[in-house]
Amino acid sequence: MARLPRITPADVPVHLVQRGNNRQACYGSEEEQCAYAEWLKIYSKKYEIDIHAWVFMTNHVHLLCTPQQEGAIGRMMQSLGRSYVRYFNYQYQRTGTLWEGRYKSCLVQAEQYLLEVYRYIELNPVRASMVTDPAEYSWSSYQINALGKSSDLCTPHSEYLSLGKTEYDRLKSYRALFSHHVDDILLEEIRSNTNKGMAIGSDYFKQQMTTLTGRRLVPEKGGRPIGWRKAKNGS
User: What is the model's pTM?
Assistant: First the structure.
């Protein structure tokens, strides 16, 4: 089956995942995570992309970001990948690819769904049993978004800013979102739609994005199409 082209229109949030080839580790040290974060900052600013949330896991990366120009995310990820892989290969005296093919991504409806994707991303280390509290994991945006740690990589989305009139109120409201885990149904929806390059949101949002991009953003229904037998028999 041919791969659907990735669509990243301007001003629409995107959740993306990039995995290590054959599940191999992407980071062997804190120094390497620092290097990745620095290149992410450089290229996100170069291509005018707001980074809202992230987590650097052992063998994969999650990002939540909003491009200001169509197609900017692809350019950012290409530049980031080249710089980091060259650095990683030099560190370990290795050659070849580090990443598992193309990154996966999906469009995210800001209303109702964006903060759920924030939570999905920053709770990754908890679901992986690496920590019991997202605040314990240094290589995610939780400490910025929930605890107020300073960062020149993170740009808050308007949905995040709407959590409160003051920074104190926003941080408190954001932490309250983590009093429970992401619902299993929503968890699977985020995973599935990201892997398939679809969209997360209401039916109306998906139809809007389909009209805007000219590309199908909902999975095709399985089985044969209605009326296929009549068409086959010419009746």
Answer: 0.90
